[in-house]
Amino acid sequence: IAVMLPCVFVLLDLLVLRRKGKGMEKIPFFLLSLLGGWSAISSAGVFGVVKGYAGGNFGFSCLYALRAYWDYLVSLIFPFQLSPRYFFKGVSLIDPQSILAYLFFIGICFYVVRNFRSRPAVVFAIAWFVLWLLPVSNLIPIGVVRQDRYLYLPSMGVIVGGAIWLETGWREQQKNLLAFSMLVIWMFLLGSLSFMHTFVYASDLAFWRRVANQNPQNAPVRVEAGYHCKAIGDVICAEKYYRQALVADPEYAYALNNLGALMIDREDYDEARGLLEKAIQAEPTNATFYTNRILLAEKSKIERDKIPEWKKKEGQFKKAKKGKDLLLGEFRFH
Fold first, then answer.
1. What is the pLDDT of residue 116?
2. Is-contact 292 276, C-beta < 8 A?
3. CB neighbour class for 38 (10 Å; exposed up to 12, middle 13-18, buried from 19)
4. Residue 254 has what pLDDT?
5. Angle at the Cα of 321 from the Cα atoms of 320 and 325, rounded to 5 degrees
6. DSSP assignment of 178-230, as one string?
């Protein structure tokens, strides 16, 4: 909010209040926003939030940003297939929706230039939508291209624009009352659909089940859903998600480890051993994997002679992780 608020003040003066020559009074706001933005980016970079550009460079990142803007707009008008998490890794920049996004962007630019003076309220609504999404549009590479929560403030621009359009339509189309009433009913139905999506956030399991259903080939998502099944004691659900994760990615270490841990609880030691060995091969520096391997050896009474070696590695990798966390903490709090 602090970063983009000065820009909103400038647009408010130009388009709504029609005040001119007030730019100097916005300088303190711009300085504060730049300071806040720089601090946020610096701290986020230390904690790994700032990542590489989507597509590998700034040009491709801009194209992904346009596609994300298009998806946001479509989800506001037709809120179908919403998800708590979105993944752009498999999104093509030349598929029909991406082409529509580029054409729509060109059309919006043309509309704004042509109607900047004649329709200031609509132009302000468009600018509001664009500006509030700008900090999270991956032009600064935060590694998350789209999230529904980013729409909380920008959606107000579309809502205001839609209200102006409806009010104008009501004045101009009073003779066609039936068609206008059907449009209003349709908007209420879409609003109720968006409301029903809020129940996805009722629990962690509901959240990750929805994400898993929307991303069937994403192994980490299915492991996360399985973890939350296990947290409430539903081991059948957990096993299902872990096995689905391994279908999507047979070498995914966390799926191998978590399923191996389930097999230890079930006393299927042979399968657990094979899974945990693969997990350690895939990620040999994870202390948790060695913890489960030690537990398996103790319960199955097989390879118990290797327990001292595994405990040594477990302690070594735990210490390395603890040291890394401590360094992050020192940077953050001192």
1. 82
2. yes
3. exposed
4. 93
5. 120
6. HHHHHHHHHHHHHHHHHHHHGGGGGSHHHHHHHHHHH-TT-HHHHHHHHHHHH
Q: What is the pLDDT of residue 278?
A: 93
**Other CB atoms within 10 Å distance of the CB of residue 39:** 11
Residue 30 tokens read as 């711009």
The identity of residue 178, as a single letter, is L
R_g of the chain, CA atoms, integer Å: 26
Going by C-alpha positions, the residue among 171, 152, 74, 160 that lies closest to residue 123 is 160
| Cα–Cα distance measured from residue 72 to residue 230, given in angstroms and rounded to the nearest whole number | 33
DSSP character at residue 218: -
What is the rounded distance in angstroms from the CA atom of residue 139 to the CA atom of residue 150? 15
Residue 257 half-sphere exposure toward CB, CA atoms < 13 A: 24
The secondary structure of 132-155 as a DSSP string is HHGGGSSSS--S----GGGGTTTH
> What would the two tokens of residue 158 be?
């579309």
Is 17 within 8 Å of 141 (Cβ atoms)? no
DSSP-derived letter for residue 53 is P
**Considering only CA atoms, which of 224, 82, 219 is closest in space to residue 146?**
82
Q: Which of 132, 127, 130 is nearest to 152 (CA)?
A: 132
Instruction: Average pLDDT across each block of 10 residues of the chain; the chain has 334 residues. List them in order.
Output: 69 73 66 67 54 70 85 81 73 84 91 84 83 78 76 78 70 65 78 76 86 87 93 92 93 93 91 92 89 90 88 83 45 33
Cβ(91)–Cβ(61) below 8 Å = no
Token couple for 99: 């082409």
CA distance 144 to 141: 8
End-to-end CA distance of the chain: 26
Instruction: Give the separation between CA 219 and CA 248, rounded to whole angstroms.
Output: 6
Spatial distance between the Cα atoms of 17 and 4, rounded to a whole number of angstroms: 19
Q: Which residue has the tokens 């929307």?
A: 214
**Is the CB of residue 6 less than 8 Å from the CB of residue 29?**
yes
Q: For residues 37 and 135, is the Cβ–Cβ distance under 8 A? A: yes
